[in-house]
Amino acid sequence: MLSRLKEDIACVFERDPAAQSVFEVLTTYPGVHAVIVHRLSHYCWKANWRWLARFIAYLSRWWTGIEIHPGAEIGRRFFIDHGMGVVIGETAVIGDDCTLYHGVTLGGTTWKKGKRHPTLGNGVVIGAGAKVLGPIDIGEGARVGSNSVVLKPVPAGATVVGIPGHIVDPKEKKPTLVLDEVVSKLDFDPYGLTMDMPDPIAYAINRMLDHINALDKQIASIQAAVNNAGIVCKETPIDSLDGCEIADSYQKSKTVNEEQEELPTVISN
């Protein structure tokens, strides 16, 4: 028990640069308190003292803001940073060296008895506000981004983001974007993402833009050929995506927004 306590305290210094001393960690870290109390409540649960185990867990929830069912199995060096709002269900299994941030839920998706909560492999990190739901396996060393909702198994070493969660591949290649020139002028990242943050959805949308631009060029060439053949094409040309009007329109809206943000400050002064 004492060796487990030493490990739980030592892992805080490894993962939280704000930690100053052992005394501070023991007296002011609710994540550490919740883990320590869970060790006791889990022992009572295994000893079939179910009401006592639940009551101890209830007191821990009231004290720390972290709800861990006494039936949950937690490995060594488990760290809950900040901790408020964390919920860990009865049949959840957490491996060694895992880290959870505030607002994380390891929940179930059914009212049936049996295994209904996630299993986390060793070294898993789950970001703030993420929800991992159902009897799924999160592979060793996997990462779950903040506010993600994960409903399917995650392979070892993968990173999952989004709602519903999807795996991002750091090896994705940057596509040739139609709007690269406009983007570089405005210092603006389409969809709020850069390709340095690999995201398969953004990648697919950018590929669609490239494809649409190629279709526009083909239609323009067909229209020119039809006109040259003596057939009058009265269709109005479609505006090009790579025109300067996009940049001018964005720049005008940006200037208006900046002026509106500055207005309250001028009035208050």
Overview of the structural elements:
With 269 residues, this protein is α/β, with parallel strands linked by helices. It is built from 7 helices and 15 strands. The chain folds into 2 domains: 2-168, 3 Solenoid (UDP N-Acetylglucosamine Acyltransferase, domain 1); 180-268, no CATH class. Helices cover 42% and strands 13% of the residues. The strands form 3 sheets. Strands 3-6-9-12-14-15 form a 6-stranded mixed sheet. It is elongated, with a radius of gyration of 27 Å.
Write the SSE topology.
Layout: H1 2-15, H2 22-28, H3 30-46, H4 50-64, E1 67-68, E2 73-74, E3 79-81, E4 87-88, E5 93-94, E6 99-101, E7 105-107, E8 119-120, E9 125-126, E10 131-133, E11 137-138, E12 143-144, E13 149-150, E14 159-161, E15 166-168, H5 180-186, H6 200-228, H7 244-268
Parallel strand pairs: 1-4, 2-5, 3-6, 4-7, 5-8, 6-9, 7-10, 8-11, 9-12, 10-13, 12-14
Antiparallel strand pairs: 14-15
Helix pairs in contact: 3-4, 5-7
Overview in brief:
The chain has about 270 residues and is of the alpha/beta class. The chain contains seven helices and 15 strands.
Report the portion of residues in β strands. 5-15%
In DSSP terms (H or I, runs of 4 or more residues), the helix count works out at 7
CATH superfamily of the largest domain: Hexapeptide repeat proteins
Separation, N- and C-terminal Cα atoms:
61 Å
Which CATH class of the largest domain?
A: Mainly Beta
Q: Which series of helices and strands comes N to C? A: HHHHEEEEEEEEEEEEEEEHHH
Rg, nearest Å: 27 Å
Judged by helices, strands and strand pairing, the structural class is alpha/beta
CATH architecture of the largest domain: 3 Solenoid
Number of domains: 2
Kindly report the average pLDDT value: 79
Oligomer: single chain
The proportion of residues forming helix, as a percent range, comes to: 40-55%
pLDDT < 50 stretches: 172-179, 181-195, 263-269
